[in-house]
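Hi V.,

You were right to ask for the full record rather than a summary. Here it is.
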Amino acid sequence: MAQVDFQHREIAIKLVYYGPAMSGKTTNLQQIHARMDPRRRGRLLTLDTKEDRTLYFDLLPLAFKSASGVTCKVKLFTVPGQVIHNTTRKVVLQGCDGVAFIADSQIAETKNNNEAFATLKQNWKENRLEAEGIPIVIQFNKRDLPRVRSDDELKRIASRGQEPVFPGIAFKGEGVAETFLGLAAATWESLEKRIGLGNKHGIPRPEFLQSLGKQLGADVDQLNLKGLA
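Predicted structure:
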């Protein structure tokens, strides 16, 4: 859950990128990091393993000071995709405010996507997060590869669930801003209900999204933050 520091007038929000191994979680965060002003962006940390490219990944916060004087920090994390690192995934999910599930669009990866989504729900339950209604968005990455789910299939998937669905080609930066800001929008709605992010803490939705979008060089008004739903 968002951490509120009343003394220093700061709010820290934690967003986690989750998904199967090599689906593009790290690539999404690398693209976000690359778009930020080098003078303002946080550190980019990675640990490589033999089993999976990234064991733990932390983009130290995107931060802005609201008109009300409250500083908002948004911390981005990703989890290792390999099942053997499930304990690490569970730890990284602790205290999260929103999740971007990065799926692989290739039809051959359907089973891996489904298994990863199932472990996400299980880890939520074990972390006692499920009842809090943590928002989630889904990105179907690698849309440029052959033998991927069709656009119509993605629309059908989006229509069957409540989660916004975004297509992406993360290594080209396509769909990266939409996924992140779509998650930010859903997270703001959740935090408004839980802690009054706008009403009580003075960070209204338009300012929240515009401030984050500006750091990525993205025009929020020009993006489809509701995905294919």
